[in-house]
Amino acid sequence: MGKKVWIVVGVILIIVVAIGAMLVGSYNSLVDLKEDVDNEFSNVSVMLERRANLIPNLVNTVKGYASHEQAAIDSVTTARENLLNANTIEEKSEANSELTTALNGLMVIVENYPDLKASENFIQLSDELAGSENRISTARRDYNEAVREYNSKIKKFPTNILASMFGFSEEDYFETDEENTEVPEVNFD
User: Fold this and answer.
1) pTM here?
2) Rounded CA separation 155/76 (Å)
3) Distance of alpha carbon 173 from its chain centroid, rounded?
4) 46, 80, 134, 172: which has the highest count of C-beta atoms within 10 A?
5) CATH class of domain segment(s) 2-180
């Protein structure tokens, strides 16, 4: 009878170790996915800040040619400040949309100033801004993919139980307004 008890204890011990290993693996995978989301959020923030840092030079260049277009210039400046002060992904997304709208308005005004469009400084800033827009788009896509993987993992059984126990919660996607998804077109012809 003693041998059967040891066999049962051994089987139970193996099952407990296997379940423990599975739980540890699931927990570690959640941590890795959460870190990926945080890293991608940081990348989006860096790209948005880079774009925001180009704005003062662009505004100053436009001011030199179109000083009486103060409403558009103020709109861009305010939107830039809102973006720099945003902390959450939702705030950054909203501020990014506001800045894109303001920049689109500024670019429409620029079309009325051929000397400004031909300015070497303006051309360089516009190219840098377009490059920033592309980087933001890539960073936003990478962030949303990391969020999708993470959110999917915390919703699936049995990981959802662990996620609930250890406080892992869904992350928000970086949303953009449909009307603001296009890069502002600057035509130098």
Assistant:
1) 0.75
2) 40
3) 8
4) 80
5) mainly alpha
